[in-house]
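Subject — a protein and its fold
Fields — amino acid sequence, structure tokens
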Amino acid sequence: MSAEYLDRLAEDLQAARYAQHPVLVAAHLAKLQRLSGWALRQAVSDAIETGMTWRGIAPHVQVPFGTLHRQYRAGSRIVVSDPGTPTEEAWDVPPDDPVAAGP
């Protein structure tokens, strides 16, 4: 279930926030990056179980559906590529409308 991953992410985010040294902040952030890929994989798995398709999920996670499917089938965490320089759009989350994406 995704909630377990989200709890772990929240714990590590809080640990990063209150770390006493920049290298400890970096260590927590690296762990968060890795763990978030596993959390994303679980969330995608949960969405598949509800009947959504790869094409329906892909726009919400901003990954081409073929790439999403390949990463999932490989059995590893799902990695979202970085568009480069952070922009306001890069921080946006698509509208929460899985029904519009269709099964």
Remarks:
- The first helix runs from residue 2 to 18.
- Residues 83 and 90 are 8 Å apart (CA to CA).
- The chain has a mean pLDDT of 85.
- The chain has six helices and no strands.
